[in-house]
Amino acid sequence: MGDEHVGRAVHRSGASLPERLDAHLQACRLLPEGAALSIALSGGLDSVALLDLLEVLGERWNWRLSAAHFDHRMREESAADAEWVADPLPGAGRAVPHGARAADPVQRGGGAGSAL
User: Labelling 109: which of 15, 18, 44, 55 has CA 20 to 30 A away?
Assistant: First the structure.
């Protein structure tokens, strides 16, 4: 069975999402054992789910996980997103090292020197 069929075969087996990801990673050799992985964590469902999955598999793969959040300050609620991500990274008992940065305030309107 070629690599392109691994995901479908595992899915039909009734395996859990972490088991499916584990099988895919083994087949594709996408993330090597013992790797240092830094996850861009927006606070959205997709990045939080990815971090959760990698945490579940991290011990088996001996990964060193970290997470990073960047507040682009493009929405009024972005500061609240940054606080939610960092306190204590979304999930009880999470022990993943993390960092956060924020963009310098910019003048809106597209004038010279403006980032927008």
Answer: 44
Task: Identify the CA nearest to 72 among candidates 49, 45, 42.
Answer: 42
Q: What is the CATH number of domain 32-102?
A: 3.40.50.620
Q: What is the pLDDT of residues 90-108, one digit of tens each?
A: 454 556 777 788 888 765 5
* Token pair of 40 as six digits: 């861009």
The residues, ordered by sequence, that sit 6+ positions from 115 with a Cβ below 8 Å of its Cβ are 103, 106
**Beta-ladder partners of 20:** none
Give me the mean pLDDT over the 7-17 stretch: 66
Torsion angles phi and psi, residue 29, rounded to 5? 50, 45
73 with 80: CB under 8 angstroms? no
Nearest of 24, 22, 31, 18 to residue 1 by alpha carbon? 24
